[in-house]
């Protein structure tokens, strides 16, 4: 659920210079009609409207209507100036040659929704908030690498970094600033009145928050595009909290709401041939995968150093041939056709869209080959019950059945159906998958509270993970050997497969330190090839980003890299 | 009487303490972790998690946290939600009026519907009307409430249209029309009533079914008593027999049930509020449980426990008042 919150913070500045050449305006200019109220249905209510405290995606979805950052991202994944006059580059002097000093020139007409000017001092204040140990911010990523924010004049913002690392730099440029005058003492951030009634610099101004019911915003007449381009076109946007997607589907049919946020693939048939409603579908950075535990699930969270020495292989999944056989046994196309209405793309690698997407073919579906590999690996069905036993396999005792536990979040229809299909496919090659689903809070429980995924106490888990425009932190977290969560690294990282590859480690470092985009692309290609070869994870399909809106709404442009309302200043309503 | 009251209040203290310990332990035992919402966010490092755990105080052992919670509550501080960072009491205060509005009207409607129908069906036992009322009550005791709520939405919101405006006959949720509230031509009373109709119908039918059964059996029991026969035998008008002798006695068990149901006015209806997007206590409870927001959860549960203890006392007093055979000692 955190994707959007994360996204805004993980835009990569290093690749900016390379994108400028192809930068284009964020939306096609179109004369919109003024006026009207738009009602958006959200099946979650934000806990807070303070982005630094927020943990739900819905918080940034709501805040997007009220805030702008220095830079934004367009649907093509290119960076565009938003409140900055231009993107800082080495060529225009915005980035110092050593990459440690980044200078932004703020537009002259940026104003807070209460009429106060929005200046460099507000970004300086935002940094002070992020770094105040009392403030309770959820993450200090990026900001903690700043040594100073300097304001030579109100329109010039100079960020001084202590080290050079791509995604960290952009964390700052893509962040929404806090207004110094309308907030309070950073040490008491959790008590700010701002958290329930924010003052922003975006197209809409906060009006009210009726707890449990709605948040409403109206046109911000201080918005910098209001005088020049008469934007935003809409008078008012109401964000209505509805109990569920199911209820939301009924409400959008009758027009009680105009937009329905965040649908899932299983909802697609409900919207086909539904008059008056448009389903906006575009590929997302999320990919549904099986994480295979390579190590002995009975040992609690072994560290990478110990794994290098002792191996501690999983009794079945520790053998590459078993992992390959599972992959050969999965018909990804069937899953897409039967469960996703052929709307998704098939999974190949962690990076599934965007500039860094590697070239990896879809794995072959070949049950015969799977069976052959299992035979070779010493897994044979001697008693004829349909499930193979260990007869000379690598790591299990003789006679052990090839029964593997598969787990995902309970209550998710698509995942449960997918599990059923997988169970059948595995049965076909003589492997028994048994299902033991858990609530998402339990599956995703962190290391510190004993989460079984983080502690390596599983066979196979299935879920989706997504990344931001810069894939570095995702790749590093999932595949760096230093990110095997264990006591040594305080449970850091998402290398739940406990996969260790010196080759991949090396390329991850190159990708993180290299300012050259082509070099980084090559590094991601190499890492993905290693993963594809060694099968610590099986990518099933890529998720879709799905939202629905009534056809009276004009100017909608899907943008996976930002929140739904990224171009809400250009939205308008066609009168019927 | 006073001594009885004092004794009852004193008895309530260990009971409430026990409830608080049980609930605290249950939340502690649940697999939910307040920090799990930060998982899967690559920007949150283990250091961040440790810092937040300390800030929330959840790094301490459970008895220390319970002790802290208790000492704060005794001073009137119900703690702060770790999700919204607002006082738990504030969260409750905002939603409580909405719940009282919904539950109060449905409670009244229930009594107005159930008492007469229950009485009639008892007096005309085995008549067609009795069979109809009994069948109706049984039906509503057996239908799952959430299913019925969705059917109401499909029929009255999605399918049926207002023939004049072409809009859905009834709104599909919420307390009022967010789009038109405050605009010219907006009628606040009509709009609130329009939004109240479906959830009210849903709640009332279900609780009326229950009350009807109570009223019927209680009245049946009374009218077969000797003193009613005596009253009739001495030639009293049937109307007086019923109103003065039968109904007053039949009302005794009902009064107890009403008093015991009163806490529901404050705790809300989870399914109804969820299905009809009603911003009330039931939804707050559900969402707090989902995010392991234990300050709010504890406040809601203890608030309800307090009300139940209180209304039980009220029920006992009402019972004694209505039934002269019972006296406090």
Outline of the structure:
With 576 residues, chain A is α+β, with helices and mostly antiparallel strands. Chain A is 26% helix and 19% strand. Chain A contains 17 helices and 20 strands.
As a whole number of angstroms, the C-alpha radius of gyration of chain B is 25 Å
State the total count of DSSP E strands of chain B. Answer: 0
- Evaluate the radius of gyration of chain A: 25 Å
What class do helices, strands and sheet pairing of chain B give? mainly alpha
Textual characterization of the structure:
- The complex is a heterodimer of chains A (576) and B (329).
- Chain A has 576 residues and is an alpha+beta fold.
- Helices cover 26% and strands 19% of the residues of chain A.
- In chain A, strands 1, 7, 8, 9, 10, 11, 12, 15, 16, 17 and 18 form an eleven-stranded mixed β-sheet that branches.
- In chain A, helix 10 packs antiparallel against helix 12, helix 15 packs antiparallel against helix 16 and helix 16 (502-513) runs antiparallel to helix 17.
- The radius of gyration of chain A is 25 Å and the shape is globular.
- Mean pLDDT of chain A is 88; it is low at 1-29.
- The model of chain B has no long low-confidence stretch (mean pLDDT 86).
- By secondary structure, chain B is mainly alpha-helical.
- In chain B, helix 5 crosses helix 7 (188-223), helix 7 (188-223) packs across helix 9 (238-261) and helix 12 runs antiparallel to helix 13 (294-322).
- At the A-B interface, helix 1, strand 9, helix 7, helix 14 and helix 15 of A face helix 2, helix 4, helix 6 and helix 12 of B.
């Amino acid at each position: 659920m955190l994707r959007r919150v994360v996204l805004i913070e993980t835009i990569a500045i290093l690749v900016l210079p390379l994108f400028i050449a192809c930068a284009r305006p964020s939306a096609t200019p179109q004369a919109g009609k003024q006026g009207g109220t738009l009602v958006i249905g959200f099946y979650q209510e934000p806990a807070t409207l303070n982005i630094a405290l927020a943990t739900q995606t819905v918080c940034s979805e709501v805040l997007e209507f009220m805030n702008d950052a220095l830079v934004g991202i367009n649907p093509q994944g290119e960076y565009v100036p938003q409140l900055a006059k231009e993107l800082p580059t080495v060529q225009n002097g915005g980035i110092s040659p050593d990459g440690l000093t980044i200078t932004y020139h703020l537009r002259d007409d940026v104003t807070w929704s209460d009429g106060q000017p929005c200046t460099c001092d507000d970004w300086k204040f935002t940094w002070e908030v992020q770094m105040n140990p009392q403030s309770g911010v959820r993450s200090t990523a990026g900001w903690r690498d700043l040594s100073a924010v300097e304001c030579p004049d109100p329109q010039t913002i100079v960020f001084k970094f202590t080290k050079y690392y791509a995604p960290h730099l952009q964390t700052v440029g893509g962040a929404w600033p806090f207004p110094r005058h309308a907030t309070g003492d950073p040490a008491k951030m959790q008590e700010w009145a701002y958290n329930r009634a924010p003052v922003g610099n975006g197209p809409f101004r906060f009006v009210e928050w009726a707890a449990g019911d709605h948040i409403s915003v109206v046109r911000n007449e201080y918005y910098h595009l209001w005088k020049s381009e008469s934007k935003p076109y809409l008078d008012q946007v109401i964000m209505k909290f509805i109990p569920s997607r199911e209820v939301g589907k009924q409400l959008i049919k009758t027009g009680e709401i105009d937009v329905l946020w965040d649908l899932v693939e299983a909802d697609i048939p409900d919207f086909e041939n539904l008059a008056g409603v448009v389903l906006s579908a575009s590929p997302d950075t999320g990919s549904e995968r099986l994480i295979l535990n390579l190590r002995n699930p009975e040992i609690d969270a072994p560290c990478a150093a110990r794994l290098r020495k002792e191996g501690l292989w999983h009794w079945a999944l520790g053998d590459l041939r078993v992992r390959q056989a599972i992959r050969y046994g999965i018909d990804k196309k069937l899953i897409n056709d039967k469960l996703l209405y052929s709307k998704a793309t098939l999974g190949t690698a962690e990076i599934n869209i965007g500039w860094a997407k590697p070239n990896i073919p879809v794995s072959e579906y070949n049950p015969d080959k799977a069976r052959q590999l299992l035979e070779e690996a010493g897994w044979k069905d001697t008693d004829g019950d349909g499930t193979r036993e260990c007869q000379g396999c690598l790591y299990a005792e003789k006679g052990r059945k090839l029964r593997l536990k598969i787990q995902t979040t309970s209550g998710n229809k698509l995942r449960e159906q997918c599990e059923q299909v997988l169970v059948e496919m595995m049965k076909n090659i003589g492997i028994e998958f048994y299902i033991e689903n858990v609530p998402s809070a339990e599956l995703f429980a962190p290391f510190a509270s004993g989460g079984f995924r983080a502690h390596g106490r599983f066979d196979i888990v299935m879920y989706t993970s997504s990344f931001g425009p810069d894939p570095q932190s995702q790749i590093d977290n999932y595949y760096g050997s230093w990110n095997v969560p264990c006591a040594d690294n305080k449970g850091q990282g998402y290398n739940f497969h406990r996969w260790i590859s010196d080759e991949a480690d090396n390329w991850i470092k190159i990708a993180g330190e290299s300012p050259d985009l082509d070099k980084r692309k090559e590094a991601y290609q190499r890492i993905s090839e290693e993963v594809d070869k060694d099968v610590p994870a099986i990518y099933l399909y890529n998720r879709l980003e799905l939202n629905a809106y009534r056809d009276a709404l004009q100017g909608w442009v899907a943008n996976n890299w930002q929140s739904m309302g990224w171009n809400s200043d250009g939205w308008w309503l066609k009168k019927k | 009487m006073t001594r009885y009251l004092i004794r009852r209040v004193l008895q309530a203290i260990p009971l409430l303490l026990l409830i608080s310990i049980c609930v605290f332990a249950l939340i502690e035992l649940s697999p939910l972790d307040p920090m799990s919402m930060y998982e899967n966010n690559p920007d949150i490092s283990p250091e961040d998690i440790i810092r937040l755990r300390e800030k929330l105080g959840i790094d301490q052992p459970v008895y220390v946290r319970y002790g802290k919670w208790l000492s704060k509550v005794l001073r009137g501080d119900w703690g702060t939600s770790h999700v919204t960072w607002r006082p738990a009491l504030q969260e409750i205060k905002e939603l409580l009026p909405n719940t009282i509005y919904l539950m109060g009207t449905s409670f009244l409607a229930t009594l107005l519907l159930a008492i007469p129908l229950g009485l009639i069906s008892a007096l005309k036992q085995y008549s067609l009307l009795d069979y109809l009322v009994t069948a109706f009550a049984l039906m509503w005791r057996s239908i799952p409430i959430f299913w019925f709520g969705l059917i109401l939405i499909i029929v009255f919101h999605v399918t049926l249209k207002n023939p004049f405006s072409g809009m859905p006959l009834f709104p599909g949720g919420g307390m009022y029309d967010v789009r038109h509230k405050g605009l010219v031509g907006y009628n606040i009373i009509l709009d609130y009533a329009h939004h109240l109709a479906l959830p009210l119908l849903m709640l009332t039918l279900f609780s009326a079914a229950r009350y009807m059964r109570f009223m019927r059996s209680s009245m049946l029991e009374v009218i077969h008593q000797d003193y009613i026969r005596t009253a009739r035998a001495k030639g009293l008008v049937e109307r007086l027999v019923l109103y003065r002798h039968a109904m007053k006695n039949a009302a005794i068990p009902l009064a107890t049930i009403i008093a015991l149901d009163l806490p529901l006015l404050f705790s809300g209806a989870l399914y109804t509020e969820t299905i009809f997007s009603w911003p009330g206590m039931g939804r707050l409870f559900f969402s707090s449980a989902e995010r392991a927001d234990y300050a709010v959860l504890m406040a809601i549960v203890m608030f309800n426990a307090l009300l139940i203890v209180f209304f039980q006392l009220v029920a006992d007093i009402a019972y004694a008042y209505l039934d002269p055979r019972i006296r406090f000692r």
